[in-house]
Write a sequence for this structure.
């Protein structure tokens, strides 16, 4: 047993957790901003997929990874705007619109990918992001190689968490976001434009989901495959609940999930007995459902979540 | 400037024409993608139409594909009526397929086998749907998220089965062993794949309509969905209604899986459902959550799916267009629904 234990907790384990957590952190922060403004975005799974496809295509055609990231972020923001158009401007059901955005985005992703790259036996790939060690910090034992010898997008995720907390809790815009998510009527009376603020938050959320897609296609897999997102968007929605709509807790939830996921990968690799590998793949999802059952009792969702705002209706 | 203004009444013709308007808008929007792909729009839609509804064989193929979507559409429609947000029809379908396959592999007289397959599949789907409903009732867990996550869990459980105990030891492919020949659903028309399950699906729709519109449970489901406070005040046990709705909804989705095993594939494989559970949401919305509307809505989507493959072969437009059409149709229908309650009014620039 101790041999298995040692194999699981190798030096690279911490690095793997950070890598797995990165796209989840972007996606979870994106969903959190949207929900904090009162808009559930179930389009996340499709938005991540379409962004991954667009980013991969741009990087592959132009040869510039950063152009790919930019395109992925713009596409994510655009799809966020589409979701906001339906749910915020028109006040339609957030559940069903989100599913619609996911169906539409994933359909578009597959359609356009096939149109651009055709049907190939070996899917095209790119030379993705390479680890960029941070001077001095990467020399710290254990933590250094794990945390500070990563892709630049990982550092961006690490910075994004305190930045998101600062924006949400310490800026006037963050206050507006929280107000329109908790009490849109009061926000409206205080002169905050509920519609505009919600649009901005959902678009920012979409841009962050785009970053998550960019990471998957350009740092983790270096290709666009139909399984590139495979439920990570849905997980991010659960992580927001688990993280109680707070940037720090959400990032913590992403790390915890990544820990379970990395553990599952190691356990698979160590060939534990005759347990089928699918049992390990299931593990993070079951873990999330069970964790939600424990967390949801005292979870405090934004009061206006799922409620459309129409000024003339009281 | 334009403003949405509440309507006092909706013209009757508008209610009926709504899905058709949404579908027309969808086809116009998606013709842009056909043009981008370098094909003639009318030609592409023409191929889709003739390949899905052009002759009697095409019609039977479309009906075979519509059957699982009738079941998942009914599952979603009934759940959404009670505002039980069941996004888990996909997982419930897979569970139904696995249970149906397990029973169908046991040698026994054909009709007994089919009956037990249906019961087992419905029970499996119902049990899966009960999880998000129970979590919501007992722990206030969001049913959207939990039912979504369960889809992944069930999918991996299915994969574990067909790559483990059920793996075909002869070919080594991850496919379950076939069900008994006697358990294969009878074919209704010689030379086609039109099977008994399609008829069952077509009968299920009016039965569900009767249940929703004419029974006490249906009344409770509707009141719970429309106004849970009023339901509670009126002495309805809202929690129990939610659990009953989940059982019913999951059972219907499970039957979709049984139909695919007994009537189409005769075994279970990883891609037994190309997302029929999610298509059920589109079907239910196009039907405006009316069980009777589920049938034409499912046939429309089935025709799009069947036709898209032929269109792809004939014109080179990727068959994934059918996925885009589904998403667009869902969103177009939602916008169309808005106009039953509101109308657009032009207001002066000074307003």
């Amino acid at each position: 047993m101790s041999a298995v234990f040692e194999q699981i907790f190798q030096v690279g384990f911490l690095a793997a957790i950070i890598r797995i957590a990165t796209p989840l952190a972007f996606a979870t922060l994106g969903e959190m901003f949207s929900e904090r403004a009162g808009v559930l975005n179930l389009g996340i799974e499709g938005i991540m997929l379409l962004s991954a496809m667009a980013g991969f295509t741009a990087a592959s055609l132009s040869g510039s990874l950063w152009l790919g990231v930019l395109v992925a972020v713009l596409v994510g923001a655009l799809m966020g705007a589409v979701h906001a158009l339906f749910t915020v401007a028109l006040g339609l059901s957030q559940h069903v619109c989100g599913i619609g955005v996911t169906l539409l985005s994933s359909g578009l992703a597959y359609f356009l990918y096939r149109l651009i790259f055709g049907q190939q036996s070996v899917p095209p790939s790119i030379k993705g992001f390479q680890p960029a060690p941070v001077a001095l910090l990467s020399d710290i034992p254990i933590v250094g190689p794990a945390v500070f010898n990563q892709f630049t997008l990982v550092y961006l995720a690490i910075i994004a968490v305190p930045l998101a907390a600062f924006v949400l809790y310490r800026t006037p815009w963050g206050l507006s976001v929280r107000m329109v998510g908790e009490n849109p009527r009061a926000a409206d009376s205080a002169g905050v434009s509920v519609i505009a603020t919600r649009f901005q938050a959902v678009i920012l959320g979409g841009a962050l989901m785009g970053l998550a897609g960019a990471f998957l296609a350009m740092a983790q897999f270096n290709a666009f495959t139909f399984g590139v997102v495979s439920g990570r968007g849905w997980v991010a929605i659960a992580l927001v609940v688990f993280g109680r709509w707070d940037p720090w807790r959400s990032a913590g939830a992403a790390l915890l999930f990544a820990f379970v996921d990395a553990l599952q990968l190691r356990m698979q690799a160590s060939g534990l007995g005759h347990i089928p590998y699918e049992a390990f793949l299931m593990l993070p999802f079951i873990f999330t459902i069970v964790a939600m059952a424990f967390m949801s009792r005292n979870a405090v969702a934004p009061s206006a979540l799922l409620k459309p705002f129409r000024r003339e209706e009281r | 400037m334009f403003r949405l203004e509440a309507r006092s009444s909706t013209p009757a013709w508008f209610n009926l024409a709504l899905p058709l308007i949404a579908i027309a808008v969808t086809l116009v929007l998606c013709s842009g993608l056909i043009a981008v792909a370098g094909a003639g729009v009318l030609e592409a839609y023409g191929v889709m139409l003739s390949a899905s509804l052009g002759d009697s064989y095409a019609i039977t193929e479309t009906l075979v594909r519509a059957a699982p979507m009738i079941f998942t559409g009914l599952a979603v429609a009934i759940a959404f009526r009670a505002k039980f947000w069941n996004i888990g029809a996909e997982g419930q379908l897979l569970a139904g397929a696995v249970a149906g396959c397990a029973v169908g592999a046991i040698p026994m007289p054909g009709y007994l086998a089919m009956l037990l397959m249906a019961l087992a599949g419905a029970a499996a789907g119902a049990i899966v749907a009960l999880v998000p409903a129970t979590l919501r009732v007992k722990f206030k867990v969001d049913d959207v998220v939990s039912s979504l996550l369960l889809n992944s869990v069930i999918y991996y459980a299915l994969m574990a089965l067909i790559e483990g105990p059920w793996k075909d030891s002869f070919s080594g492919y991850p496919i379950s062993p076939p069900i008994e020949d006697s358990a294969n659903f009878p074919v209704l028309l010689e030379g086609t794949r039109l099977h008994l399950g399609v008829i069952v699906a077509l009968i299920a729709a009016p039965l569900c309509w009767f249940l929703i519109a004419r029974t006490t449970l249906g009344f409770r489901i509707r009141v719970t969905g429309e106004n849970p406070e009023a339901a509670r005040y009126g002495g309805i046990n809202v929690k129990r209604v939610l659990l009953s709705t989940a059982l019913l909804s999951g059972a219907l989705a499970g039957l979709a899986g049984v139909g695919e095993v007994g009537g189409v594939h005769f075994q279970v494989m990883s891609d037994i459902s190309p997302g029929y559970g999610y298509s059920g949401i589109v079907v239910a919305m196009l039907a405006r959550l009316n069980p009777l509307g589920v049938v034409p809505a499912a046939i429309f989507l089935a025709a799009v799916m069947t036709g898209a493959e032929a269109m792809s072969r004939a014109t080179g437009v990727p068959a994934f267009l059918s996925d885009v059409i589904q998403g667009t149709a869902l969103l177009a229908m939602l916008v169309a629904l808005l106009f039953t309650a509101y109308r657009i009014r032009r207001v002066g620039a000074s307003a």
The CA atoms of residues 78 and 196 of chain A lie 15 Å apart. The first helix of chain A runs from residue 2 to 8. The two ends of chain A are 64 Å apart (CA to CA). Chain A has a mean pLDDT of 89.
